[in-house]
Amino acid sequence: MSHNQNVVAVILGGGAGSRLFPLTRERSKPAVPLGGKYRLIDVPVSNCINSDITQIFVLTQYNSASLNRHISRTYRFSTFSTGFVEILAAEQRNDNSDWFQGTADAVRQMLPHLRTSKVKTLLILSGDHLYRMDYRRFLARHFETKADVTISVIPAKREDAEGFGLLKADDKGKILEFSEKPKGDALEAMRVDTTSFGLTADEAERRPFLASMGIYVFNYEKLKELLRSDIAAVDFGGEIIPAAIDKYNVQAFLFDNYWEDIGTIRAFYEANLDLASPLPKFNFFNAEAPIYTRSRYLPPSKLHGCDIDNSMVCEGCILNGVYARNSIIGLRNRLDPGVRIEDSIVMGSDFFESIEEIDANLASGTPHIGIGENTLIRRAIIDKDVRIGKNVQLLNLERIDRMDAEDGSYFIREGIIIVPKGATIHDGIRI
Question: N or C: which end of the chain has fewer CB within 10 A?
């Protein structure tokens, strides 16, 4: 009997996703599109499936229709397997009108839903990280060391370390201390000799800190005790983990590979564009551990007279005379002659417009879904189902760092122009 039968994975879908606004204006964070055809949630769910963990709960702050639709259409296991992917949304109860107060509070509220008595181990994951991990190794470390809690850590450089919860471990990997985002002397005090985790002397010198990735393996009974003993604790990093270190056997599992937290617009933008580079840090072409998503049965894309380089083009697109560099062109994109796209993410659309609809729209002065002739787009994120007319320029020539258009048709965050889902930008507009 493998341990995995008794492992349940819980993916924390993140808060209201305000740092990813306006991408999260109409969807929960796990449903935010990634790499043209995937969604953020596909990464941890696929990691679970590839690690033989098929009992998966996704916790989200608000139930977004797109997340429900995506999960129910994508992850259907055979009737004879015990596998499931189920969404649990924060419930507003009489005694608690608030959203989840933090990561630990979310898990505390979901424990009653673990109806099965067989759960021995809980794998707690984050819904907005881009990485590929075989959780079997993480679990093996947990069982070998007879740990109550195991925390996945990544070796960090000094300049990165300040932004993380840092852990101090002995040379066997037992965690002795936790410090949330320490600065100055407190930071220095958290240095660890990472050679004991298998890093070379040079690497250990360069990355002498152990940063918590915010993913954990818990002994189920011990987690219940921790959540019960401190009813006020709402956060894993800040409260539950320090309490566990005092009481229990807490171990570190070292992960030394690409890992990116996609919590902000800039991180989202950079991680996506990196996927289109010749040697991306995260490789979707790994046949051993594929990333799953919904199969949509779309026709192949058609390209006529295009000049496209360092870019990803997804299925169902019609591109006529398009110039694109370092960009992601998502599903069902219809791009007209003379369109130039640089360093941008164009997410595409959820449906095809018929020729009749396009003609009717044009007659009423509404652009078709997609991008009209001779439009220039640079350093932008164009969300789904957006209509951009002809001769539009989205270039942020004034280098504005942050702005909200009065009509809500676009936003600028960290210098990146974002056109939210379903917005329309009429002919000739310049931003």
Answer: N
Domain that holds residue 223: 3-275
Contact 181, 164 (CB under 8 A): yes
Contact predicate 178/167, CB 8 Å: yes
- Please list the alpha-helical segments (H only) found in 209-318: 220-229, 241-247, 265-275
First-residue to last-residue Cα distance in the chain: 61
- State the Cα–Cα distance between residues 39 and 127, nearest whole angstrom: 10
Name every residue whose Cβ is closer than 8 Å to that of residue 69 and which is 6 or more positions away in sequence.
none
pLDDT digits (tens, 9 = 90+) for 86-105: 988 776 555 554 556 777 88
Q: Please indicate, yes or no, if residue 289 is contained in any of the structural domains.
A: no
Q: How many domains would you assign to the chain?
A: 2
Question: Based on the domain organization, do 242 and 336 belong to the same domain?
Answer: no
Determine, yes or no, domain membership for 256. yes
- Report the predicted TM-score, pTM, of the whole model to 2 decimal places: 0.94
Q: Are 345 and 329 in contact (CB under 8 A)?
A: no
Pull the structure tokens for residue 189. Answer: 């005090």
pLDDT in tens, 310-357: 999 999 999 999 999 999 999 999 999 999 999 999 999 999 999 999
